[in-house]
Write a structure and sequence with these properties.
The chain is mainly alpha-helical. The protein has a single domain (14-70, 89-138), classed as Zincin-like (2-Layer Sandwich), CATH 3.30.2010.20. Helix content is 49%, strand content 10%. It has 7 helices and 3 strands.
Length: 139
């Protein structure tokens, strides 16, 4: 048995708390100017999107949605002055991400970073090219 296989005998999937730590590490590695513009964004980790979200996003399965931005982004003229308005939030869904990772050649950390950047990108109204550039800068 190889050393790699032996290492996996003692491991399990990352918990929600470990996923949260990985998301924070990914966020902390983003370019400073990008992170500075993200003030107030809350990053949440959950195992699955709720049924309402799956219906709203027209998902065919529980595994279709890896992450989601909820809120009013800069592209929509963000305003926080309204009473009772929830903060902008990025959701990362652990189980769909783990499933995606199982079929990917990317590391779990790279996938979490990709989903995080993509969802934060919605806050800014960024293009796919912009998000790819930010990912390269975070490497």
């Amino acid at each position: 048995m190889s050393t790699t296989a032996e290492n996996w005998n003692e491991r399990s999937a990352p918990t929600l708390a470990e996923f949260e730590d990985m998301a924070q590490v990914s966020f902390d590695a983003l370019p400073d100017n990008f992170r500075a513009l993200c003030a107030g964004i809350v990053i949440r980790i959950d195992d699955w999107p709720d049924d309402e979200t799956l219906d709203e996003m027209k998902c065919e399965s529980d595994y279709d949605l890896l992450g989601l931005f909820r809120g009013r982004g800069l592209a929509q003229g963000e305003i926080f002055a309204q009473t009772g308005q929830q903060p902008n939030m990025v959701w990362l869904y652990r189980r769909p991400i783990l499933d995606y990772w199982a079929d990917s050649e990317d590391t779990l950390g790279a996938i979490i970073r990709h989903v995080l950047i993509h969802e934060i990108g919605h806050h800014f109204g960024l293009s796919d090219d912009d998000m790819e550039r930010i990912e390269r800068e975070a490497d």
